[in-house]
Amino acid sequence: MKRSASERLRARLGAVRPALTKLFARRQRKLQASNSPRAEVKHREPREWPRRVGLVALKLGATVAVAWGLLIAGREVYEYATTSTRFEVQHIIYDRSAHVDDDELRELLAIEPGTNILACDLAELSERVAAHPWVAMATVTRNLPDTLGIEVVEHEPSAIVLAGRFYLVNAEGVPFKVVERGERAELPIITGIERSALKQADGQPIPELVAALDVVRMYQTKQRPRLGELHLGDDGSLTLYTAEVGTQLRLGRTDFEVRLARWDALRAALGERADHLAVVHLDNETKPDRRDRVVARFANEHDEAVLLAQAASALESDDETQAPTAKPAADTTPAERRAQRRNRIPSYE
After folding, report:
1. Per-residue confidence (pLDDT) for residue 129, from 0 to 100
2. How confident is the model over 108-164, as pLDDT tens digits?
3. What is the spatial distance between Cα 198 and Cα 116, in angstroms, rounded to a whole number?
4. How far apart are CA 327 and CA 322, in angstroms?
5. Ordered DSSP codes for 120-142
6. Which of 98, 173, 279, 335 ranks highest by number of CB atoms within 10 Å?
7. CATH topology for 157-299?
8. CATH homologous superfamily for 88-154?
9. Domain assignments of the chain as residue spans, ordered by start
């Protein structure tokens, strides 16, 4: 039986329909895949890569050009600053101190005319100024275009130490210079220190001087007779001598504040007679079962003769002493002996 044409067409369409369905499904999947972000990146990467490389190269080239330009400009500025007369040292700002005047400062700095301010080594200049014996610390600053600022902190002497020669000592217990005429003032003198201790210290505080200065400050906190000398004994004991009368105060090795209080009480009890004391033993040990005792002795002519002999011996042994030699005790009047007794230590007035 023959089929009609329409039936034959339906049969053919039915045969190719599965193939057409698969084809349309495949194309649909491709369209969906092409619309996804990953596909878009993969699709665009080949076209964006050259542009990115170009941008990086352009930025790198611009950076190198700017850096090169800055380098050249900085070199030109440096050459101008180090060779121009505008930056030569012309002025020094300095507040004159008590012992370093303008002329001494310029001599210490030793800056040649025409020196460029940028070529100055500030640390080296500070060390030059600090080399002055009175200078404890110096600071040099640069104020462009042509000015140097100098700040100086001087030593403040607290005492004098006798160790072969007389040396000024600051509050930290460091001897900083030899005493010259006119520098003695009314500073107390510390004795009993070996010269070797000064050499070993090498500019550092000396423990014995630090301890002695603590006692000096303790003594000076109250109104007492001016202190002339503090002697350090070999056993560590301290002995004080007043400046005007030469009274000897034996403090021992401990409890200095308590023993100075005993000295104050004794002076208050004796009144004006306290000025005639020769020796005061303040180093008696305190005991709970008895009252504090202070043993004192008044000066007599024999004591004065001994003190005069000690003073004459000190004058002969010290090369720097300019005071006249004392007369023998037998050839002097009591008034002269009292006046000479006050100069137990050679003076540098």
Report:
1. 95
2. 999 999 899 988 999 999 999 999 999 999 999 999 889 999 999 999 999 999 999
3. 41
4. 15
5. --HHHHHHHHHTSTTEEEEEEEE
6. 173
7. Rossmann fold (3.40.50)
8. membrane protein fhac (3.10.20.310)
9. 32-75, 88-154, 157-299
How many other C-beta atoms can be found within 10 angstroms of the C-beta atom of residue 214?
Answer: 12
- Report the C-alpha gap between 243 and 249 in whole angstroms: 12
Q: By three-state DSSP, how is residue 259 classified?
A: helix
DSSP tag of 88: B
Question: In this structure, are residues 174 and 205 in contact, taking their beta carbons and an 8 Å threshold?
Answer: yes
Written as one letter, the residue type at 5 is A
Report d(CA 292, CA 278) in Å as an integer: 20
Looking at this protein, which amino acid is placed at residue 149?
G
DSSP class of residue 276? G
SS3 93: strand
The radius of gyration of the chain from alpha carbons, rounded to an integer in Å, stands at 47
**What are the structure tokens assigned to 13, written together?**
């369409």
Taking 60 as the threshold, does the pLDDT of residue 246 lie above it? yes
Cα(188)–Cα(164) distance, rounded to whole angstroms? 17
Q: Which residues contact 229 (CB under 8 A, 6 or more apart)?
A: 188, 189, 190, 191, 240, 241, 243, 344, 345
0.85 exceeded by the pTM? no
Amino acid making up residue 108: L
Which ranges constitute the DSSP H helices of 36-95?
A: 37-83
Q: What is the pLDDT of residues 202-229, one digit of tens each?
A: 889 999 999 999 999 999 999 999 999 9
* Six token digits for residue 14: 């039915």
Strands 238-242, 248-252: pairing is antiparallel
Q: pLDDT digits over 4-56, tens only?
A: 666 666 676 666 677 767 777 777 777 776 665 554 545 455 557 777 777 88
Cis upstream peptide for 145 (omega within 30°): yes
Query: How many CA atoms, within 13 angstroms, populate the side-chain half-sphere of residue 237?
Result: 11
